[in-house]
Amino acid sequence: MQKKIPTRKCVxxxxxxxxxxxxxxxxxxxxxxxxxxxxxxxGRGAYICNNAECFRKAVKNKGLERSLKSSIPADVLERIEKxxx
Length: 85
Hints:
By secondary structure, this protein is α+β, with helices and mostly antiparallel strands. It contains three helices and five strands, in the order βββββααα.
């Protein structure tokens, strides 16, 4: 039997992709917003494609804020965009 590959929806472009292709951004229980490189960190997660364009779309359409159920400070957004390169 073939193993099921988990898919997630990018909050930027709205495309369904394999979970390992996407980057997870989480809001921790302490209300910290950061990139989760392991994909296993505790917290509410949102997935975006591994490019700055999708990240900008997710910010513009408020998809990231909606998914994380909180507003995101500009400095945090800038830091994540830099990490995406």
